[in-house]
Amino acid sequence: MLAGTGSDVGKSVVAAAFCRIFRQDGYHPAPFKAQNMALNSYATPDGLEIGRAQAVQAEAASVACHTDMNPLLLKPQSDHSSQVVLHGKPIGSKSAYDYWRRGSSEIDFRAEVCAAFDRLASRYNPIVMEGAGSISELNLRDTDLVNLPMARHAKADVLLVGDIDRGGVFASVYGSIALQSAADRRLIKGIIINKFRGDMSLFAEGRKMLEDICRVPVLGVIPYYHDIHIEEEDSVSLQQKQRQMAEGKVNVAVVLLRHISNFTDFDVLERDPRVNLFYTSNTTDISQADIIILPGTKTTLDDLLELRRNGCAQAIQRAHREGRMVVGICGGYQMLGQSIDDPEGIEGTVARLPGLGLLPIHTTMTATKQTRQVTFRFDGKECRGYEIHQGVSDTSEAVLQAGHCIGTYIHGFLDNAPVIDYLLGGLCAEKCQPVAFDYQAYKEEQYNRLADHVRRYVDMDRIYQILTDE
Predict the structure, then answer these.
(1) I want to staple 454 with a disulfide (CB 3.0 to 4.6 A). Which of 17, 234, 253, 284 is the partner?
(2) Model pTM?
């Protein structure tokens, strides 16, 4: 188990690295996270929903993703409530208070996630588990499903990941260990210091001091990197991607929605050397971009209302009239239509809103969620993607195009070369040099580079010894 001193210390990426390392070394690994909280999700081959991070880790392990890898997914709907997805299917919404209060549910979530782990462990070895947030939230210890209670069930060896870049790594690592019970402290077999910057030799004494006070070996100090690109789990990182317009490239503006989901849809464009992709809610940036993308969202009506309030809706309509390409994916696709109705109050109190009117569809929100992997044809070529959405639109088209506006429910739409070639073709002829870009090959290269990076700075011999010791 990769556990953490806090959120965003790099557990997900380090877990992905170990998935690829074990696969390279001839094992048959699989990822596991008992409970994930994220809006970024993925559809499994059998049409169920899991956190995107576990889908990425499965890809690093070269195995098909399955709901047993993330049996419990919480998708925030507001500051106080989340949709609960169990074994890939939504079972309703809960407030944070009700979810964490013991005995508030008829479902024994602990039994469900433990059973999922047991099924997974019967098919794969080793299991690369990921914790959530901090392992030392004392007020949540009795209801914790994902950290050390899960490690106890799995009899897992725990590696504690601390982020040195944010400061306070001695206190966070020592405190995380010291606050555990004696039995749980014995599960923690090593420390990994992540996101180190600067001269590694300057931390040699600090490494020894950390081992002395924690009485746990430091198994690696992983330097911060800028040149390896693995899909991010949390949308917090999007705040750092509000770049400016660039000369000599195709400028792509992704409208920064308050409840944006599945932002990894745009990783392929972000990595394409011909493209300058940025996230923005600035109306001037939107009006000047070559391509405008309305992304997916967990609350379509609320975000559509906000787009009208902040002027982004009008900026998108104006840019479209001036000939800019507009693309909508999932909730963004629904917004581009004529209207969105929510007669049952699925999303809240807003019963109906007019859309932006760029596509000839009407959408009705429904309680049933569509989750499936799909194949479709674009520009005469077969493509692949997946759907995760609530709401039904009155069209049978997988991809709906009206002039220079394209809409689709399909996540991963932009991962297909025919789509990218279509979107960038004419613009690149005017602005930049043509470049061949194979996104699948690129992702494989990134997993291998990540594995090489972690191997270089982590004592894998000692980790294998820990895993094989009884």
Answers:
(1) 17
(2) 0.86
